[in-house]
Amino acid sequence: LTSLLVQFDQGKFIPGSFSATVGIGFTVIHFTPDASIWDTAGQERFRSVTHAYYRDAQALLLLYDITSKSSFDNTRAWLTEIHEYAQNDVVIMLLGNKSDMASARVIRREEGEKLAREYGVIFLETSAKTGLNVDEAFMTVGKELVRRSVQLPVEHRFHLHDVMPPEKEPSVCCSFR
Ligand SMILES: Nc1nc2c(ncn2[C@@H]2O[C@H](COP(=O)(O)OP(=O)(O)OP(=O)(O)O)[C@@H](O)[C@H]2O)c(=O)[nH]1
Questions:
Q1: What pTM, to 2 d.p., does this model score?
Q2: Ligand 1, atom 16: nearest CA belongs to which residue?
Q3: Which family is this protein grouped under (predicted)?
Q4: pLDDT at 79 over 60
Protein backbone atom coordinates (compact mmCIF):
# COMPACT_ATOMS: atom_id res chain seq x y z
CA LEU A 1 0.00 0.00 0.00
CA THR A 2 2.86 2.38 0.71
CA SER A 3 3.93 2.41 -2.96
CA LEU A 4 0.33 2.89 -4.07
CA LEU A 5 -0.11 5.87 -1.75
CA VAL A 6 3.11 7.42 -3.01
CA GLN A 7 1.93 6.94 -6.61
CA PHE A 8 -1.43 8.51 -5.83
CA ASP A 9 0.06 11.37 -3.82
CA GLN A 10 3.15 12.19 -5.90
CA GLY A 11 2.32 10.57 -9.23
CA LYS A 12 5.49 8.53 -9.27
CA PHE A 13 6.84 5.12 -8.42
CA ILE A 14 9.83 4.98 -6.13
CA PRO A 15 11.46 1.61 -6.75
CA GLY A 16 12.97 -0.47 -4.00
CA SER A 17 11.50 -1.30 -0.68
CA PHE A 18 10.16 1.17 1.76
CA SER A 19 10.85 -0.12 5.21
CA ALA A 20 7.95 -2.43 6.02
CA THR A 21 5.18 -0.51 7.69
CA VAL A 22 5.45 -1.20 11.40
CA GLY A 23 2.19 -0.55 13.18
CA ILE A 24 0.65 2.49 11.55
CA GLY A 25 1.93 4.85 8.89
CA PHE A 26 -0.04 7.96 8.18
CA THR A 27 -0.73 9.85 5.01
CA VAL A 28 -3.39 12.47 4.50
CA ILE A 29 -5.09 12.55 1.15
CA HIS A 30 -7.69 15.16 0.44
CA PHE A 31 -10.95 13.90 -0.93
CA THR A 32 -14.25 15.66 -0.88
CA PRO A 33 -15.16 15.25 1.92
CA ASP A 34 -11.68 15.22 3.41
CA ALA A 35 -10.56 11.82 4.54
CA SER A 36 -7.43 10.51 6.16
CA ILE A 37 -5.77 7.36 4.99
CA TRP A 38 -3.91 5.24 7.48
CA ASP A 39 -1.40 2.90 5.99
CA THR A 40 -1.38 0.00 8.39
CA ALA A 41 0.96 -2.93 8.54
CA GLY A 42 -0.08 -5.86 6.42
CA GLN A 43 1.87 -8.38 8.39
CA GLU A 44 0.09 -10.92 10.50
CA ARG A 45 1.99 -10.05 13.69
CA PHE A 46 0.55 -6.51 13.64
CA ARG A 47 -3.01 -7.64 13.23
CA SER A 48 -4.01 -6.79 16.78
CA VAL A 49 -2.58 -3.26 16.46
CA THR A 50 -4.35 -2.76 13.18
CA HIS A 51 -7.65 -4.06 14.50
CA ALA A 52 -8.09 -1.01 16.74
CA TYR A 53 -7.81 1.26 13.71
CA TYR A 54 -10.07 -0.44 11.22
CA ARG A 55 -12.86 -0.93 13.74
CA ASP A 56 -13.87 2.71 13.30
CA ALA A 57 -12.78 3.08 9.68
CA GLN A 58 -15.14 4.36 7.01
CA ALA A 59 -13.19 2.77 4.20
CA LEU A 60 -10.62 0.02 3.91
CA LEU A 61 -8.26 -0.72 1.06
CA LEU A 62 -7.00 -4.25 1.07
CA LEU A 63 -4.10 -5.07 -1.21
CA TYR A 64 -2.64 -8.30 -2.39
CA ASP A 65 0.21 -8.87 -4.77
CA ILE A 66 -0.87 -10.68 -7.96
CA THR A 67 2.53 -12.45 -8.01
CA SER A 68 2.07 -13.93 -4.53
CA LYS A 69 -0.37 -16.66 -3.59
CA SER A 70 0.31 -16.16 0.13
CA SER A 71 -0.59 -12.47 -0.06
CA PHE A 72 -3.86 -13.40 -1.77
CA ASP A 73 -4.63 -16.00 0.92
CA ASN A 74 -3.77 -13.42 3.54
CA THR A 75 -6.31 -10.91 2.17
CA ARG A 76 -8.97 -13.61 2.38
CA ALA A 77 -8.17 -13.96 6.10
CA TRP A 78 -8.33 -10.17 6.49
CA LEU A 79 -11.69 -10.02 4.73
CA THR A 80 -13.12 -12.63 7.06
CA GLU A 81 -11.91 -10.72 10.09
CA ILE A 82 -12.95 -7.30 8.80
CA HIS A 83 -16.39 -8.69 8.13
CA GLU A 84 -16.60 -9.40 11.84
CA TYR A 85 -15.13 -6.22 13.34
CA ALA A 86 -15.52 -3.32 10.93
CA GLN A 87 -18.58 -1.08 10.79
CA ASN A 88 -21.39 -2.46 8.68
CA ASP A 89 -21.44 0.39 6.21
CA VAL A 90 -17.67 0.45 5.71
CA VAL A 91 -16.50 0.80 2.08
CA ILE A 92 -14.11 -2.04 1.33
CA MET A 93 -11.93 -2.17 -1.73
CA LEU A 94 -9.91 -5.20 -2.74
CA LEU A 95 -6.93 -4.34 -4.93
CA GLY A 96 -4.77 -6.78 -6.86
CA ASN A 97 -1.53 -4.80 -7.10
CA LYS A 98 1.60 -5.21 -9.28
CA SER A 99 -0.52 -5.82 -12.39
CA ASP A 100 2.50 -4.65 -14.42
CA MET A 101 4.26 -7.92 -13.55
CA ALA A 102 2.31 -10.03 -16.05
CA SER A 103 4.95 -12.73 -16.49
CA ALA A 104 5.16 -13.40 -12.74
CA ARG A 105 1.40 -13.40 -12.21
CA VAL A 106 0.04 -16.31 -10.14
CA ILE A 107 -3.39 -14.94 -9.20
CA ARG A 108 -5.74 -14.58 -12.16
CA ARG A 109 -7.91 -11.49 -12.35
CA GLU A 110 -11.01 -13.73 -12.13
CA GLU A 111 -9.86 -15.08 -8.76
CA GLY A 112 -9.69 -11.54 -7.40
CA GLU A 113 -13.11 -10.75 -8.84
CA LYS A 114 -14.54 -13.92 -7.32
CA LEU A 115 -13.16 -13.16 -3.84
CA ALA A 116 -14.54 -9.61 -4.08
CA ARG A 117 -17.96 -10.94 -5.09
CA GLU A 118 -17.94 -13.39 -2.17
CA TYR A 119 -17.58 -10.52 0.28
CA GLY A 120 -19.53 -7.93 -1.71
CA VAL A 121 -16.58 -5.56 -1.99
CA ILE A 122 -15.27 -3.45 -4.87
CA PHE A 123 -12.39 -4.86 -6.91
CA LEU A 124 -9.70 -3.41 -9.17
CA GLU A 125 -6.28 -4.48 -10.37
CA THR A 126 -3.70 -1.75 -9.87
CA SER A 127 -0.06 -1.00 -10.45
CA ALA A 128 1.82 1.41 -8.22
CA LYS A 129 4.58 1.21 -10.83
CA THR A 130 2.69 2.26 -13.96
CA GLY A 131 -0.06 4.10 -12.10
CA LEU A 132 -2.75 1.86 -13.62
CA ASN A 133 -6.07 2.32 -11.78
CA VAL A 134 -4.39 4.08 -8.85
CA ASP A 135 -6.42 7.29 -9.13
CA GLU A 136 -9.50 5.21 -9.96
CA ALA A 137 -9.09 3.17 -6.77
CA PHE A 138 -8.96 6.19 -4.46
CA MET A 139 -11.61 8.10 -6.40
CA THR A 140 -13.97 5.13 -6.30
CA VAL A 141 -13.60 4.96 -2.53
CA GLY A 142 -14.22 8.71 -2.25
CA LYS A 143 -17.30 8.59 -4.47
CA GLU A 144 -18.68 5.57 -2.67
CA LEU A 145 -18.26 7.32 0.69
CA VAL A 146 -20.14 10.36 -0.60
CA ARG A 147 -22.85 8.18 -2.16
CA ARG A 148 -23.34 6.23 1.06
CA SER A 149 -23.44 9.33 3.24
CA VAL A 150 -26.12 10.83 0.99
CA GLN A 151 -28.12 7.62 0.91
CA LEU A 152 -27.75 6.75 4.56
CA PRO A 153 -31.24 5.89 5.75
CA VAL A 154 -32.66 8.24 8.33
CA GLU A 155 -32.41 5.63 11.10
CA HIS A 156 -28.62 5.47 10.65
CA ARG A 157 -28.11 9.19 10.95
CA PHE A 158 -27.00 10.73 14.18
CA HIS A 159 -29.72 11.29 16.78
CA LEU A 160 -29.20 13.06 20.03
CA HIS A 161 -31.34 10.56 21.92
CA ASP A 162 -29.00 7.77 20.87
CA VAL A 163 -26.29 9.22 23.06
CA MET A 164 -28.37 10.94 25.71
CA PRO A 165 -31.45 9.65 27.51
CA PRO A 166 -34.55 11.69 26.49
CA GLU A 167 -34.99 13.22 29.95
CA LYS A 168 -31.50 14.70 29.72
CA GLU A 169 -31.93 16.21 26.25
CA PRO A 170 -31.60 19.95 26.41
CA SER A 171 -34.95 21.61 25.99
CA VAL A 172 -35.44 23.24 22.67
CA CYS A 173 -37.50 26.15 23.81
CA CYS A 174 -36.39 29.27 25.47
CA SER A 175 -38.06 32.53 25.88
CA PHE A 176 -36.23 35.74 26.35
CA ARG A 177 -37.77 38.68 28.05
N1 LIG B 1 6.54 -3.98 -10.06
C2 LIG B 1 5.86 -3.46 -9.02
N3 LIG B 1 6.44 -3.40 -7.79
C4 LIG B 1 5.71 -2.87 -6.77
C5 LIG B 1 4.39 -2.38 -6.96
N6 LIG B 1 3.93 -1.93 -5.76
C7 LIG B 1 4.91 -2.13 -4.87
N8 LIG B 1 5.99 -2.69 -5.47
C9 LIG B 1 7.25 -3.09 -4.81
O10 LIG B 1 6.93 -4.06 -3.82
C11 LIG B 1 7.68 -3.85 -2.61
C12 LIG B 1 6.77 -3.61 -1.43
O13 LIG B 1 6.04 -2.41 -1.64
P14 LIG B 1 5.42 -1.53 -0.46
O15 LIG B 1 4.60 -0.47 -1.07
O16 LIG B 1 6.51 -1.13 0.50
O17 LIG B 1 4.51 -2.63 0.23
P18 LIG B 1 3.50 -2.49 1.47
O19 LIG B 1 2.29 -3.23 1.06
O20 LIG B 1 3.32 -1.06 1.87
O21 LIG B 1 4.25 -3.31 2.58
P22 LIG B 1 4.08 -3.16 4.17
O23 LIG B 1 4.41 -1.73 4.47
O24 LIG B 1 5.10 -4.10 4.74
O25 LIG B 1 2.65 -3.53 4.50
C26 LIG B 1 8.60 -2.67 -2.94
O27 LIG B 1 9.82 -3.20 -3.39
C28 LIG B 1 7.91 -1.94 -4.07
O29 LIG B 1 8.79 -1.23 -4.90
C30 LIG B 1 3.81 -2.46 -8.27
O31 LIG B 1 2.66 -2.09 -8.54
N32 LIG B 1 4.61 -3.01 -9.27
A1: 0.74
A2: 18
A3: Belongs to the small GTPase superfamily. Rab family.
A4: yes
Give me ligand 1 centre to Cα 2, in Å. Answer: 7
Query: Which of the following CATH numbers is that of domain 2-154: 3.40.50.300, 3.30.70.270, 3.40.50.1580, 3.40.1190.20?
Result: 3.40.50.300
CA dist., res. 142 & res. 7, Å (int): 17
Residue 50 has a pLDDT of: 60
Tell me what ipTM this predicted complex has: 0.92
For ligand 1, whether the C-beta of 133 sits within 6 Å is no
**Digit-coded pLDDT (tens) for 106-133:** 999 999 999 999 999 999 999 999 999 9
Q: How far is CA 67 from CA 2, 58, 101, 107, in A?
A: 17, 29, 7, 7
Q: CB count, 10 Å around CB of 140?
A: 16
DSSP 90: -
Q: Would you kindly state where each structural domain of the chain is located, as residue ranges? A: 2-154
Q: Residue 32: is its pLDDT beyond 60?
A: no
